[in-house]
Design brief:
This protein has strands at about 25-35, 50-55, 60-65. By secondary structure, the chain is mainly β. Strands 1-2-3 form a three-stranded antiparallel beta sheet, with no helix packed on it. Strand 2 (about 50-55) and strand 3 form a beta hairpin. It is globular.
Amino acid sequence: MAEQKKKPAAKIEQLRPLAEGLNLTVKVVSSKMIMPRGRGDGNQGRQMRLAECLVGDETGIVVFTARNDQGLL
């Protein structure tokens, strides 16, 4: 398997709408679990867990919505 070069970490100030494939190194300022909800595809089996997190670096702070295991701190 070919090795992929790791992209350097982007800063919050570099974020743009619909940007993809970015690596961010941020500090979690706060995290709050929000109500679990059913999946959008109609499958009521496993509910999605959501956490609203405030994350940032030296250039800014943004709200990040963590899904399922992403919200485990």
